[in-house]
Amino acid sequence: MVLAILNSDPSLRRAENFSPEKFLVAPQKLKRRSRAHNIPGGIKHLLSDSKRRHRFSVRSIAQPPSSASLPLSHRSHPRFARLRHKAANPAALASAAPASKSQRPQSPPQSHSPINVTFSRRLPELPRKQISSEVLESIGFTPEVPSQYIRDQMERLGPIMYQALRSTKAAASGSTLPKTLVINLDGQTSTTMPPTHMAAIYSSAPSGPEPCRVMMYPIHQSILSLYCANLPVLTASSPLPTTPEAPFEVPVVPLALPNPDSFPLLTQFLYLKDVHPLFEAFLGLAPAKGIPSDLDQPAQYDAFVADYSVILAQNYTMQRLAGQAVKVHGLWRNACALGVSDVDLQAFFDLAWEILMKALAHSSNTLPVVVST
Q1: Is there a smaller number of Cβ atoms within 10 Å at the N or the C end of the chain?
Q2: What are the boundaries of each domain within the chain?
Q3: Burial grade of 156 (CB within 10 A; 0-12, 13-18, 19 or more)
Q4: pTM score over 0.85
């Protein structure tokens, strides 16, 4: 079997098979104004707790259900004020206006049978957990230094480190996952802040008789350890290469996650702290003017949700919207499993989920939508 080595660009993801039973399954931006409390439970608890599992179904039924659509109330929170508009390439963002008939994506004919779509009304808050002193010490910080202060300092280095990921090349072969991997660096940026580890990502769900596929991504220990409270202390990496052209070894970290496909997007957010790629990836269309900075105001929030949900409903089928909601839920499950607690990421989950639920209601038209609490 050949293990594909991927960088953090989601478009370059590839996967191969291996048996995860031999490998360790690792356990599971807070602003000071956010309330601080700890929620117990590691990755094992989060993945086995039935209360944190959600079942999604999109099915045709003979008769419309008696339940009516439940209204989704506004969730005003100061964190929405943090979703500032960031400069973006206008060509890469879709215009936040209803598409004309000639511009709308072609959709398959919809069945006249009623469709029952069941989702959780809201996604629970991300569990809040402190980074352990052992983890902080492993990346060179004393326990006296607040982890939030370290995160603030790392934000300016994140984009530089992310570029290094995109310039990393590696290859491996064999039927088992190696403990270390030799990587090569391409470009001056990557040699100044090279990745320290390779994350081997595979599904935490039982694979049955089929071999489990694995995807490998270069990562920086300082980024993941600062944001993923459920990660253990990672194996120390080798010293940096003496010359830019010299290859060097990095440890391989096996991680079992509920939704492996969304791991690159989660790490991209942790490096860049930008929600725009998340909206583009999970909602399909991004507002041309970005995310308004006044979403902490109920009127502006409700107007943005209403407009955005209508645009999605006019451009996508109900099945497509339901599929996007499942993907958002998968990203949320990964964040819970890793112990990621970030106000901007939480704001994305709150906003994206409400937009998708309202878009599903619009898309259903006369077809009833049941939103379970």
Answers
A1: C
A2: 2-70+80-98+112-372
A3: exposed
A4: no
